[in-house]
Design brief:
With about 280 residues, this protein is α+β, with helices and mostly antiparallel strands. The protein is built from 5 helices and 10 strands, in the order αααββββββββββαα. The longest helix has 27 residues.
Length: about 280
Amino acid sequence: MAGKIRVSPIKWIFLGLLATGVISFVGFVIWGHVRAPKSPHREAQSIYNRDEPLGTMPEKLILGLIQLRPEEIVKIPFIDGFESPIGADNGAMAYDAQPFGSPNPKRGGNHCGQDLNGIGGQNTDEGDPVRAAARGLVIYSGKPSSDWGNVVVLAHRIPGDARIIQTLYAHLKDVKVTPGRLISRGTTIGTIGTADGNYPAHLHFEMIASRCIEAGMPGYSPKGVMNRLDPEELMNHHPAPPHPDVYDSIRRLRIREAALQSPTDSKPAPVPEGAIPVTPSQFL
């Protein structure tokens, strides 16, 4: 009869300690995952990873973490120039009450944009139209906080410039555009407001170099370069032409042109009687 195989007590102790260590480690990992508070980075990253339209984003955004998606970036149009978002032609009948870079004692630091007012002052310009300073893609429309009120942000490209340039319009009374819409320079995007009574009526206007949603965010300096830009300087370098922007009209014609293409070949379908044959692609 074969003798029983004996395992030394030292080996039993070693195996017991090993098993105890493995169980403790797994329990520690699971407990830490359940109890650990969500960091702003983790929360924002989960928002970004969810494939949701911009219009459903939470009101409170997190600096530098909610990025434009690739499919949005490729839709951003090139500008033909910048113009004043309020007032008459070339910004007449409006003035800058707090220029870019001026001391901002109420909030500390320097002003990151312009505070544009109608010449009557106080609330005389409340409800006046706010227009897109350049053709662009609406990337945000909402209320980041009560201090900001209603905010619209457009994204633009400048020929020869690799940056994404945003224009931000804050303290609006009404908003007339939604995220994802491509609009022409001069399109009414909202009206001058008071951020729900927090300020006398005016438009807080910013220009920003960023590929992240900047609605309600403070200016910051990645790699020592301020991402808030001087609107007056940029407008002087890229002035809008004197004629209205026909971007929307040409875009609609190009969509119509594509729809008229025969599904079986590349020849256009016959033009209906009385219609003027137009090839919109020749304009762009």
